[in-house]
Design brief:
Blueprint lengths: L10 E7 L4 H10 L6 E8 L5 H8 L4 E3 L8 H13 L5 E4 L8 H7 L3 E5 L11 H8 L3 E8 L9 E8 L6 H26 L1 E4 L2 E4 L5
The protein binds 5-O-phosphono-beta-D-ribofuranosylamine (GRF).
5-O-phosphono-beta-D-ribofuranosylamine binds next to α1, β5 and α6.
Length: 213
């Protein structure tokens, strides 16, 4: 019987960002420990001039930028993104505040091994404004969700979730910052676990370890 290959050690990560990159920073710091089991081989973005790219550069991590405006249409950008990420031969791709939906070309190569983090408790409040929408709804508890990317908006199989209280007097910014503190810890813990152990899906359940141990 064929034995499934063990995960590569350290696992190769490509991280995609669009903003301040504090989730990326948490991964950079975790991955300096050889025991973590993952190394960031490249950081990509859909825009220039962001702190996320600067953080990568300060740590001598290779970076690239692919703006949608440089391409004829979104599918062409999606193909270019898939090709560029593939050139780094990653085991896992992590979307860490990447404000674009990946498309069919990207998912054909990296579906099932791309993780995204969303600042709300899925399936509530998908989309660009999770903290704002949670506040407007008046929930008392929200949080963050780490999931395996599929073709929907924040709909993929859930890896982990963390609950965060909404406090009286919160505005969007204070709530999002509180969420991000928990989100970073969850991201670091689970990216490390999945990088070291591999994972597979049982319907919508994400299980660490090989499919047929
Ligand atoms: C995170 O809350 C992420 O879930 C959301 O945008 C934020 C990115 O923060 N999509 P940072 O750029 O990692 O600081």
């Amino acid at each position: 019987m064929a034995v499934p290959p063990a995960p590569r050690t350290p696992a190769r990560l490509v991280v995609l960002v669009s903003g301040s990159g504090t989730n990326l920073q948490a991964l950079i710091e975790a991955s300096t420990d050889p025991e973590y089991g993952a190394t960031i081989v490249a950081v990509g973005a859909d825009r220039d001039g962001i702190e996320g790219l600067a953080r990568a550069e300060r740590h001598d991590i290779e970076t690239f930028v692919l703006r949608t405006s440089e391409f004829e249409d979104r599918p062409a950008w999606d193909v270019a993104l898939a090709d560029k990420v593939a050139s780094y031969d990653p085991d896992l791709v992590v979307l860490a505040g990447f404000m674009k939906l990946t498309g069919p070309a990207f998912l054909a190569l990296f579906g099932g091994r791309t993780l995204n983090t969303h600042p709300a408790l899925s399936p509530s409040f998908p989309g660009m404004h999770g903290p704002r929408d949670a506040l407007a709804y008046g929930v008392k508890v929200t949080g963050a969700t780490l999931f395996v990317v599929d073709e929907g908006v924040d709909t993929g199989p859930i890896v982990a979730q963390v609950a965060v209280p909404v406090l009286d007097g919160d505005d969007e910014s204070s709530l999002h910052e509180r969420i991000k503190t928990s989100e970073r810890a969850m991201l670091v813990e689970w990216v490390g676990t999945l990088a070291r152990e591999g994972f597979h899906l049982e319907d919508r359940a994400v299980r660490p370890g090989p499919d047929h141990p």
